[in-house]
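Chapter review: from sequence to fold.
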Amino acid sequence: MGAITHALTITGSMTWEITWALILGFTLSAVIQAVVRKSTIVRLLGDDRPRTLAVASLLGAASSSCSYAAVALARSLFRKGADFTAAMAFEIGSTNLVLELGVILWLLLGWQFTLAEFIGGPIMIVVLALLFRRFLKPALLREAREQADRGIAGSMEGHAAMDMSVTGEGSFLKRLLSRAGFTSVSHVFVMEWAAILRDLVIGLFIAGAIAAWVPDSFWRHFFLAGHPVWAGVWGPLIGPLVAVVSFVCSIGNVPLALVLWKGGISFGGVTAFIFADLIILPILNIYKKYYGRRMAWHLLWTFFVAMAGAGYVVELLFDAFGWIPGRGGMTVMDDGVKWNYTSWLNIVFLALAAVLVARFVRTGGMAMLRMMGGGPDAGADVGADDMADDMGGPGHGGMGHEHR
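The C-alpha cell string follows.
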C-alpha cells in the first residue's frame, strides 16, 4: 500500500501543479478557435510551399491540442482539398506547438524545454516536408486520398468535424465579447478538455507509477547516462520508441517526460519523445484506417526520422549555447498540495472554468458533447451562428433552447 500511496501522491502533486496552466491554455485556445473558421483554414493550405507550411503550423498551434482530434482534423482538411504535406504540418502544430503544452513544459521541466519544443517543432516540419518531396510518390498519395475519401471513422471525428467559430461582421474583440462568442468559447473549452482528459489522466498515473516504482538506476543504464556521447546519439532514437509503446499522447506525455529526464535521457531525447505523440500505436492504427496501410508505414518512418532529427538539432543547438539544464535540482513532485501561489492560481482559474462549464451546460452543450465521437461528417457545418439559428436567437451551443 505504501508504494501505491507514493505513486498516487506524485500523481496528485503534478496534477495540482499544472491545473491552472491547463485551464489558461485551453481558454486561450478556445478564444482563437471561436473566431477562426475551418473553411478559412482549408483555403490557406492548398500547396506545400514554405509560406503555406508556416501558415499551417501557426493555424495548428491555434487549434486543438488533442492528438486524436488533430489527426482527424488533418484528414478532414485533406479530404476538403488541403495539400497533404500542409495537413501534416497543421497536425504537428496542433499537438506540439500549442500554448498549453509550452506552459506545462515550463512548469514541470523548465523554460529550456519549452523553448526546445517551439524551436524543434518547425525543424520537424521542415524535415518532414523534405522527406515528403523526396519519397512521397504520386501513386501513394492517390491511394491515400482514395482511402481518405471513404470516410472511415477513427477517433474524435465528431469533435474534429465541428466548426463552432463565430461569423458575422465586426472586429475580433466584438465577436469574442458577444453572446455567441462567449458561448462558442465555453463549448470549445469544455470539448477540448473532454478530448484530452483521458490521455492526461493516464499520463499522470503512468508517470506517478514509474517515478515511484522504477529505480533511477534502471533508466540511467537504459539511457546510457554514464556515456555522454553515446547518450546523445541514443536519446533521440529511443525517445520516440518509448512514446510509441506508452500509448500516451499530447499533453499527457509531459509528466512522463519529466520522469525520463530525471532518469537520464538526453535533452534531445526528451524533445523527440514529446514530439512522438503522433506515432503512438493507437494513432498508427488510425492512420491505417484513414490513408491505408502503405501510407501508415510511410508516416511512421518519415515522422520518426523528422522527430529524431529535430531532437539531434535541438541537442546540438542548446549545447552550443549552454542552455541544457542540469539535473541536480530536478525532482519529481511528491509533496502533495501546499498553500502557495499555485493554490491561488488554481482557485482563480478553477472559478473561470466553472463559469465556462456553466455556460456550456446552459446552452445545450451536453448534446454537442455526445456528438464528439461521431463520424467524420458529424456536425461538419455546425457553427456558433448556425446553432444560434437553431435556438432562435444569438449565441451558440447545441440542440436546445439557450437560457439567459
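Two observations follow directly from the output. The chain is about 70% helix and 0% strand. Residues 378-404 have pLDDT under 50 and may be disordered.
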